[in-house]
Amino acid sequence: MAGEHPPTLPEEVTSPTAAHSQPSVMHAPPPQTPVDIPPVLPLTVQSSSNSCDSARIVALEGMVNQLAANMATNMSELMALLGN
Description:
Elements: H1 16-21, H2 43-83
């Protein structure tokens, strides 16, 4: 099998006009961006949301700690029931 040639694949049949009628992707202009939309938010908007975000984070941390304690209680009760 070392002397055999790999199978040849048939060439695609394309007409010369079809190959040249497609627009080139490399030369496409970049997409336009709207002028009235600022690229970043103003700092005042970000700083006011930071205090709200920190309050939400503290609330979420409390909820996670409460769920972890509840899960530990449930696991200890389950282990006690399985031990009987």
